Amino acid sequence: MAEQKDLFKDIISHCKEYGFVFPSSEIYDGLSAVYDYGEFGVELKKNLREYWWRSMVQLQDNIVGIDAAIFMHPATWKASGHVDAFNDPMIDNKDSKKRYRADTLIEDYISKIEAKVQKEVDKARMRFGETFDEQQFRTTNARVIENQQKIDSINARMKQALEENDMQAMKQIIVDCDIADPISGTRNWTDVRQFNLMFATQVGSLAEESSTVYLRPETAQGIFVNFLNVQKTGRMKIPFGIAQTGKAFRNEIVARQFIFRMREFEQMEMQFFIKPGTETDWYKHWKDSRMQWHLALGFPAANYRFHDHLKLAHYAKAACDIEFNFPFGFKELEGIHSRSDFDLSQHEKFSGKKLQYFDPDLNENFVPYVIETSVGLDRLFLATIAASYHEEQVPTSVEGEEASRVVLRIPPFLAPIKVAVLPLTKKDGLPEKALEIFNLLRHQHMCQYEEKDSIGRRYRRMDAIGTPYCITIDHQTLTDNTVTIRERDSMKQDRIAVEAVEKIVADRVKWPS
Ligand code: GAP
After folding, report:
1. Is the link from the previous residue into 239 a cis peptide, with omega within 30 of 0?
2. I want to staple 62 with a disulfide (CB 3.0 to 4.6 A). Which of 93, 240, 251, 364 is the partner?
3. Residue nearest to atom 22 of ligand 1 (CA)
4. How far, in Å, from the CA of 259 to the mean position of ligand 1?
5. What's the 287 CA to ligand 1 centre distance in angstroms?
6. Residue 366 and residue 356: Cα distance in Å, rounded?
């Protein structure tokens, strides 16, 4: 665990040192849970957004995109249920003065018991070797059974308390589990209270003219209110989807996990409109499809798992998360929700406008059901950096190269900089030749030209920002018009003809189809 924590710290420092993520308004000591993306961060974020857009819109026959405004009519949030129900249960520790989400405190406690169970399982696996049957062990070992029952009982109590909005019962779970504040170590808790997560502001200049509007807490509602516009103008036939990416805002109670939980973040959401009665099949379809999309990035499959929701959001009939093994453990990366006709029906009720689809085959109108996929771009960014980050010892082959390196093994098509063009020295006409190649490549890809420092140091810097290829121009280039191409992960260098550079690079960094 200590190692995991340090790894997280190392990743945060790396992100800052190499221009990926900075604390917002840092010269004023930052603003809690708000971050800025630096020169390489913005490129990686843009590429991740594009990877999503390509697979969700460009490569789909029946999904189109929109870009709705952040501000929406305030009735939207009454209809969607966010004004009344978009709450988190919060609790304060009177000694540390720290505020927590009550459900997170309980979940963390459950994770500790789960870790104990896993330790027993791992120990037994070591002891029994190949003959080990995990399922049998979990259902017969007394300590594992006892701990599993404890987990199930706490989960059941929390589910009931959250469903019944019973904050006293939430507090009682914390008391019964003897949960202490991780900072003060005391159990001196306030009562649990509900806290609405929406940010409100005013539209209009004069108090009497102004009205309260909210910064959208999810992008989804911009899609629902445009359902008929898009269906008509796009001549869409059900089943079809509407996708969008954009900022969302939540006044998170606890925001101490870097870009995992932010107050301003970006979502990539798709609402898939279907015929009522087909939701079970489509829910499964999108669960599978979204997991495949994550796995296609090529990071180990063991980093991903599904987690069914214990407490359903006010709009959901079924919901699960795709969780990622972040440096602080498995946590939600993406949500897949079966939203029934909740949103469209609510908007019909509040707006007085019909939001229905006329099915020409059935010759009837209906309010479509919706399956939603919703992934946080910042969480995807963190998952990508965490899975790519490697500290390793390496053999040195060139001057100035250190024996250890930090390398970001970002999939080449996502890398912020695709190619670095490096003259071996600053003289003998090498920079001129290098600039010729750089000026050719920069029309196709994000490239960097760098002539400062030893070549080894420049390679290390490119490793640290995840640049998959370095093209080095040396004295041989001037005689036979060849350069070396160095591959980031293997550090292998090949000699290739200058005329081949453009095609070789294009082939190696191209988007997956
Ligand atoms: N429209 C459905 C919806 O908003 P959600 O599970 O609340 O569902 C979807 O959010 C995704 O948005 C999450 O899986 C997560 O990746 C991202 N997300 C939510 N809150 C976030 C926050 N405070 N900071 C960063 N990402 C967040």
Report:
1. yes
2. 240
3. 261
4. 12
5. 16
6. 5
Residue-wise pLDDT for 237-257, tens only, equals 999 999 999 999 999 987 778
Does residue 310 have a pLDDT over 90? no
The residue assigned the tokens 């140091």 is: 457
Nearest CA to ligand 1 atom 9: 374
Which residues are near ligand 1 (CB < 6 Å)? 218, 220, 250, 252, 261-262, 265, 267, 269, 332-335, 372, 374-376, 378-379
User: Which two structure tokens, joined as six digits, stand for 98?
Assistant: 């720290």
Q: How do residues 365-391 score in pLDDT, each as one tens digit? A: 999 999 999 999 999 999 999 999 999
User: How many whole angstroms separate alpha carbon 22 and alpha carbon 42?
Assistant: 11
pLDDT band at 216 (very low <50, low <70, confident <90, very high): very high
**Strand 419-423 with 469-473, pairing:** parallel
Residue nearest to atom 27 of ligand 1 (CA): 376
- Closest ligand 1 atom, CA of 374? 9
**Are the beta carbons of 77 and 346 closer than 8 angstroms?**
no
Give the number of other CB atoms < 10 A from CB of residue 305.
13
Query: Is-contact 420 458, C-beta < 8 A?
Result: yes
267 Cα–ligand 1 center, Å: 7
Ligand 1 centroid to Cα of residue 375, in Å, is 7
SS3 218: coil
Residue 121 in this model has a pLDDT that exceeds 60:
yes
Q: Which two tokens stand for residue 280?
A: 């079970």
Containing 229, the helix (H) or strand (E) segment is: helix 227-233
**Which contiguous run of DSSP H or E holds residue 366?**
strand 364-366
Kindly list the distances between the CA atom of residue 223 and the CA atoms of 60, 200, 241, in Å, as whole numbers in the listed order: 17, 21, 10
Nearest 5°: phi and psi at 487? -95, 130
**What atom of ligand 1 comes closest to residue 332's alpha carbon?**
14
74: preceding bond cis by omega (within 30 degrees): no
Atom of ligand 1 at shortest range from CA of 335: 14
Strand pairing report for 199-203 and 329-340: unpaired
